[in-house]
Amino acid sequence: MGIIDSIASKGDIERARSILEGWWETDLQDANRHDRQYALWLRGLLTVDPELASLDFRRLAVSFPGGPFSDDALSRLGLISVADGDLLEASAYFRAILLDYPISPERKIAEEWLNSNQSALEVLELARIPKIQEQVRAIQKNTKSLGQASSGSPDRYAIQVGAFSNSQSARDLAKELTAKGFEVRVVGIKGTALSRVRIGRFKERQRASTLLHDLREIGQVATLVDDVFLEVERP
Question: Which residue ranges form the domains of the chain, and what is each CATH number?
Answer without folding.
Answer: 2-116 (1.25.40.10), 129-233 (3.30.70.1070)
